[in-house]
């Protein structure tokens, strides 16, 4: 399964994505608000890639974002009903994740029976919080000290997007 938008190809991860994904997962700016520390080695990224590939073999719900032949990010559903996204900083503020999620969200509601999609963002990450709100997600609650990376605790703001009535 491949989804396409005006500028993007959204597809399953392959082994060929390793070094592009490592460039993202090792970038401290990209990983600033992620729930794990930046990857120090390609081997660490390979562990994530192996999970993405295995998950896609069961049901594709998490995509790599490809633009102009290069893997520049990831987006989709990575937990039971939780969506997430990660983009190389060189592509920030170009509407790429918004464009990707406008294709991915309807697909997720089509291939799953979830009553809603959820998201968890660090409240300091104004770009992600704003993006989720622009996609129709509504804040449900907040929690303090939800994860610790390199000795720094982060809070969470949680969101939900109900299944549209016409997709039931």
UniProtKB/TrEMBL annotation:
Keyword presence, Transferase: yes
Gene3D superfamilies: 3.40.630.30
GO molecular function: acyltransferase activity, transferring groups other than amino-acyl groups
Domain of life of the source: Bacteria
UniProt keyword terms in alphabetical order: Transferase
CDD domains named among the record's database cross-references: NAT_SF
PROSITE patterns associated with the record: GNAT
Domain N-acetyltransferase, first and last residues per copy: 8-164
Alphabetized InterPro entries for the sequence: Acyl_CoA_acyltransferase, GNAT_dom, N-acetyltransferase
Protein name: Ribosomal-protein-alanine N-acetyltransferase
Lineage, top ranks: Bacteria, Pseudomonadati, Pseudomonadota, Alphaproteobacteria, Rhodobacterales
């Amino acid at each position: 399964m491949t989804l396409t938008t005006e500028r993007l190809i959204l597809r399953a991860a392959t082994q060929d994505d390793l070094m592009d994904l490592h460039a993202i997962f090792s970038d401290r700016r990209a990983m600033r608000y992620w729930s794990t520390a930046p990857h120090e080695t390609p081997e660490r990224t390979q562990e994530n890639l192996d999970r993405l590939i295995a998950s896609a073999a069961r049901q594709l719900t998490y995509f790599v974002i490809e633009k102009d032949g290069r893997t520049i990010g990831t987006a989709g559903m990575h937990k039971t009903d939780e969506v997430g996204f990660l983009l190389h900083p060189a592509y920030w503020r170009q509407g790429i994740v918004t464009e990707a999620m406008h294709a991915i969200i309807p697909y997720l509601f089509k291939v799953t029976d979830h009553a809603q999609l959820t998201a968890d963002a660090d409240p300091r990450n104004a770009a992600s919080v704003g993006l989720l709100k622009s996609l129709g997600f509504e804040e449900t609650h907040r929690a303090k000290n939800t994860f610790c990376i390199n000795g720094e605790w982060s809070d969470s703001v949680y969101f939900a997007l109900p299944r549209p009535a016409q997709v039931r």
